[in-house]
Amino acid sequence: MSSMLDYFTNLTDIEIKIDYPLEEYTHFRTGGPAEILIQPQTAEAAADIVAICHEQDIPLQVLGKGCNVLVADRGIPGVTLLLASKMARYDVAGDQLFLQAGLSIAEACALAARNSLTGLEFACGIPGSIGGALRMNAGAYDGSFQNLVIRTQYIDQTGTMGWVEGDEHEHAYRSSVFANNNWIITQTVLQLAKGERQAIYRRMAENARKRRESQPLEYASGGSAFKRPAGNFAGKLITEAGLKGLRMGSCGVSKKHAGFIVNYGKAKSSEIMAVFIKVQDEVKKQFGIDLEPEVEFIGDWSGEPMARTGRTG
Ligand SMILES: Cc1cc2nc3c(=O)[nH]c(=O)nc-3n(C[C@H](O)[C@H](O)[C@H](O)COP(=O)(O)OP(=O)(O)OC[C@H]3O[C@@H](n4cnc5c(N)ncnc54)[C@H](O)[C@@H]3O)c2cc1C
Predict the structure, then answer these.
(1) Measured in angstroms, how far is the CA atom of residue 178 from the centroid of ligand 1?
(2) In which band, very low, low, confident or very high, does the pLDDT at 313 lie, cut at 50, 70 and 90?
(3) Whose CA is nearest to atom 43 of ligand 1?
(4) Cα 66 to averaged position of ligand 1 atoms, centre (Å)
(5) How do residues 127-148 score in pLDDT, each as one tens digit?
(6) How far is residue 221's CA from residue 219's CA, in Å, rounded to a whole number?
(7) What pTM, to 2 d.p., does this model score?
(8) Which of 69, 135, 152, 163 is the best mutation target for the ligand 1 pocket, counting ligand atoms within 8 Å of the beta carbon and taking the most?
């Protein structure tokens, strides 16, 4: 371990933590330690870290605000690159927002509203970072990030920095060029439009209210557990399978919204995984439909039962 650490100790603009528990960095409030947790303050520092990991064959996992991931109880081997909070600068020019990847979606929404810019209202209440949102093409109600993003800076797997524009983002439902290639987002430019400030605040408050009413925000979760299957809804299938409110120890399927798997307090990631598996198996058995997790399973899950992800590698 110390030899792996040696590669990073001479870098500037970074903060390093060793064997650091990830519970506090994940929305499920679970997960073992990051072997080496590095928080870069600049895109260049992040690129240096990626280049070292590439050259030295060190496993690398990126983490934003941990709202869409389930981290293994054994933790994450190698380097966990944490972009939230330290890389969170922003700027406004006319009706464009310039946002670093670690800025929270909530701060971006507040920035837009303060500047009377409309377009981001749909995102009000989606937890997470701008980087995570662009990778997952986060969306809600009538909007998604793909409708706003015009240019994004990224780091490829070798540590080389580049930009994509417009269609090059390859945004589709919960997917992007960044997810397809495992690229790391460092900053982006969103195109909004001039609007009326009070109306923007009203729409944001309305969306936040709808979320409070329909989602189990009082419990730890990863948001929608499964992607929407073609022509159907995961929550509807789970309800019809009789699994709404299913309790398995300290976690289960939410009583309020069957699309959410929640941690009521003390569950471990492996117990939450067991709920994913149970739901997948039951829905497959009753309706012949494969539910694909929207939540990403990261870290060292080797030898543990896992839900089918539909992803390879
Ligand atoms: C209560 C709740 C409600 C939610 N509601 C919605 C919703 O309405 N719509 C929706 O789309 N999602 C929703 N989500 C899911 C989640 O909030 C979004 O997917 C969010 O964009 C994830 O951002 P994050 O920073 O937390 O990403 P993380 O969970 O940290 O990471 C998710 C994935 O993105 C990668 N990643 C993170 N940062 C970067 C980066 N800078 N560059 C490249 N890859 C990166 C990670 O490696 C991982 O693969 C919800 C989640 C919760 C808990």
Answers:
(1) 13
(2) very low
(3) 184
(4) 7
(5) 999 999 999 999 998 899 999 9
(6) 6
(7) 0.96
(8) 135
Alpha carbon of 119 to those of 147, 206, 207, 287: distances in Å?
9, 14, 13, 38
Looking at ligand 1, which atom is closest to the CA of residue 131? 41
> Which residues belong to the active site?
174, 224, 294
Domains of the chain in sequence order: 2-82 (3.30.43.10), 90-201 (3.30.465.10), 217-298 (3.90.78.10)
CB atoms within 10 A of CB 15: 12
- The 8-class DSSP code of residue 149 comes to E
Which protein residues touch ligand 1 with a CB less than 6 Å away? Answer: 27, 62-69, 83, 101, 126-129, 131-133, 135-136, 138-140, 178, 184-185, 215, 217, 221-223, 296
The Å distance, Cα 62 to ligand 1 centre, comes to 11
Position 1 scores a pLDDT of 57
Burial class (CB in 10 A: 0-12, 13-18, 19+), 253: buried
Distance 3 CA to ligand 1 centre (A): 32
Token pair of 173, please? 């439902």
Mean pLDDT value across the chain: 96
Question: What is the Cα–Cα distance from 172 to 89, expressed in whole angstroms?
Answer: 27
pLDDT of 285 reads 98
* Those residues with Cβ within 8 angstroms of residue 25's Cβ, 6 or more apart along the chain or in another chain: 31, 63, 65, 66, 82, 84
Share of the chain above pLDDT 70, in %: 98
**What does the pLDDT read at residue 312?**
40
